[in-house]
Amino acid sequence: MVDIVDAATRSRMMSGIRGRNTKPELLIRSLLHRRGFRFRLDARDLPGRPDIVLPRFGAVIFVHGCFWHGHDCPLFKWPQTRPDFWREKIGRNRANDERSRAALLAAGWRVGVVWECALRGANRDLDGVLQRLVDWLHSDVSELDERG
């Protein structure tokens, strides 16, 4: 299928997509901060460079966009333009996520993932997401996967 915009417009649109400080990430950081949690951001010294690091709890949190990480939810659908490129790109992202998760768990970190779909849409439950995050941080459970 042919793209609905020209190459220059598509390039401009894609360059505006940020990898850090996204709206879902800012929302989770704000919610945690209001509850009294203090954390580090974008830890370059840890595998996968987690979005939020809570050293006191031995935990890291990734805030994943459903499209970029190929989540199995209504927010994700395979692009019809350049399908081979996107399958390879998203497949690589998924493989990197799994490697990072395994390396962090092996290093003794607890790993939480909050998916974009948990924070968007008519059925979103921000209080519930925050409470499950807080409960997980205070527990000894090694992993959390918060999805919509």
Tell me what you see in this structure.
39% of the residues lie in helices and 14% in strands. It is of the alpha/beta class and 148 residues long. It has a single domain, classed as VSR Endonuclease (Endonuclease, Chain A), CATH 3.40.960.10. The radius of gyration is 16 Å and the shape is globular. The protein has helices at residues 7-15, 23-34, 83-106, 126-137; strands at residues 40-41, 52-54, 59-64, 110-115, 143-146. Belongs to the vsr family. One of its GO terms (molecular function) is endonuclease activity.
List keywords for this structure.
148 residues; alpha/beta; Endonuclease, Chain A; five-stranded mixed sheet; 5 strands; globular
The overall number of domains is 1
Relative strand content:
5-15%
DSSP helical segment count:
4
The number of E-state strands comes to 5
Straight-line N-to-C gap: 30 Å
CATH structural fold name: Endonuclease, Chain A
**Helical proportion?**
25-40%
User: Would you identify the CATH architecture?
Assistant: 3-Layer(aba) Sandwich
Structural class: alpha/beta
H/E element sequence? HHEEEHEHE
CATH class: Alpha Beta
**Main sheet overview:** 5 strands, mixed
Determine Rg (CA atoms, Å). 16 Å
Strand ordering within the main sheet = 1-2-3-4-5
Overall geometry: globular
Average pLDDT reading: 89
For CATH, the homologous superfamily is named as VSR Endonuclease
Low-confidence stretches: none
